[in-house]
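Sat 14:20. Reprocessing the chain from the morning session after the first attempt stalled halfway. Input below, unchanged.
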Amino acid sequence: MREHAQRLMKKGLLGLALLCLTQTSLAQDTLKEDSLQEVVVTGTGTQHLLKNAPVQTEVISGKMLQNYGGRSLEDILGGLTASFAFNEGDMGSQMQMNGLGNSYILILIDGKRIHGDNGGENDLGLIDPHNIERIEIVKGASSALYGSDAIAGVINIITKKHDTEGILVENTTRGGSHGELRQHNGIALNFGKFNSYTNFQLQHSDGWQNTSREDPHQTEYLITDSRNKTVNRYTNWQVAERLTYSPTEALELYLDGSIYRKRIYRPSGNHPGVDVKTYDLRYNNASASAGGKWRLNDTDVLTLDVDWNRHAYHYDFTAVTLTDGMVNGHSTSYFPFYPGQSQLQSDQQRTMAHLKGVFTLPYDNRLSAGIEWRYDWLKAPNRVEGGKANDNTGALYVQDEWRFACGGNVATHLTAGMRLNKNQQFGWRLTPKVSAMLSVGNDWRIRASWSQGFKTPTPKELHYQYVRDMNGIYLYLGNTALKPQHSDYFSFGVEYNHGGFNITATGYYNHVRDMIALVTIPNGEAPSDLYTKYLPLKTRRYKNLESAKTYGADLTVRYRINREWTTGIGYSYLDTDAEVYDTEHDIMQSVVIDGMAHHKGNCFVTWSHTFRNDNTLGAGLYGRASTRRYYQLNGNGKGYHLWRLTSNYSFSPRRGKQTPFTFNVEAGIDNIFNYIDKTDHGLHLGTTTPGTTLYAAFTVRFNHGKKITNKYKFNSLNQQSNEEN
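Finished this time. Tokens:
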């Protein structure tokens, strides 16, 4: 039965590809793909046209974002690329890219790390989808440039820049099924040397329940009327402010900060023996940063950034709860909390300082160099012995880019760099990276890279001590004997561009040594005092795996048929191989990397028409699919394919003259064929989609002013564009 289902899924993926490729037969007049002319920065930390980026970079452009109408970053990445998989949960987004999970994926906003690790899961609600200009994705180890956490790859969220002299006010309101509400408000003030942008976002959902049946292996009774939801009701909001001051055209100074709040409302079960929720979850985040950019000339620049971030979450009790663990750093038994009271679970704070310079050298060389310092502080009164832990790391890095002509229309671009890390607990580590691109004419690009990744254990992985009562006691343990993780990543890719046609194929191999994962261990391996106290049903501990390997291939095909029609497909093949030493049986045991699916794919066809009055009407059909997802515990996630139909209309009431007002209306249907995974609660590991959903959004923008051009930015970009062309 499973083999038959997998065959159907493979046929479904093939169907996605065939449906999209047949649209290319409509071609009459091919045009050059506009997105290839976009400037990207993530792969090397310096500006390059996308088609000439020496490190393979995938871009989700602003036009793609507008056409797709995604409600969240999870929705956008899952629907527009084939390399990602998500499982949204109370603790954040369980994200995976090419076989590796959250803690190995570095997420940046305008080149800066986001902060929000909670059990290895990032709360992507911190990112306002209505304020995204584009998304740049670089796969593979990037520790030489970005340091720890960049073993699987880097996602860089580039926010919108409001460089119009005067005033901009914008409002977007989106509503949809299951009480979905998304609100975005922005106010930009730009007068002379001073610029301010204030951003507010609110996200709400009533949640949904795909099944009322509890997993019979996790409950004492057969339960078919559980109140537990697949996705719980939640509300979050964020206010962010950015101030910039440019005393000269060459110097820009900035201050920014944000406040973020989120609450997750969890219903209690109505049967004994179930994971009864007696508390809601509340998150308090804050950030502040300052810095500046000094353009020394048309090509050279110095930047300085100092950042502070906080991520804290609490239990807000809704019923009398007896806690058994540590309170204020001391072991307790059955300490009572009452409705209305709160308990801090984790308060993570991080301070970073980063000084970077980019310099043009003779013989077509460009040098990047920098110094970083990072301090992590963890307060977890009931989860860490002593209540606190900390870690700090310093680093130096250097990177050289060298471009030279090989004769005719052939050119080579070499990039080599290395980072020297010094961690307070784990000492020194050198991580190098080498990449090369061979360009043949304007159509062909061949890229290859080798890079090493490096990641030290987090304070949580080292020191956590957590008890969960779910039809028995489950004990989760940190491990102070953990070793740092390091990896070798190899990739080889070919890209072809001609007219409006673009195809990219990349194969990769990522070998992670000493990978850290939660592993079920014999209860006898737990510390004797904890085992005696809790008598756990199951004990899980962070341990270093002996070896973990991910390997596969990614394929993307995009074709701009004419000025109105664009189509494309994406396909990702993945396999993994991991081993851990089984102390109970004294053997090496193969384990699966949670969330791995062998085949994933996506497909789209979009149409857009601009009228004489510059009003624009667009529509899109999108599909995505995945075969079975594999997990160590609780079975595997079912394969699926989902389809989405979107539409948007942008217009302005000109009436024969310019007007500062523009409007945009969006509407769409997601999961057209109403697929729902009704696996027992807690085991819906394929997708949590609630079935067919509807959404509509309305945007109004008032923009009164004129465009500002910075001579340094303009000249630098044009010089580089001319060199690469």
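The first helix runs from residue 2 to 22.
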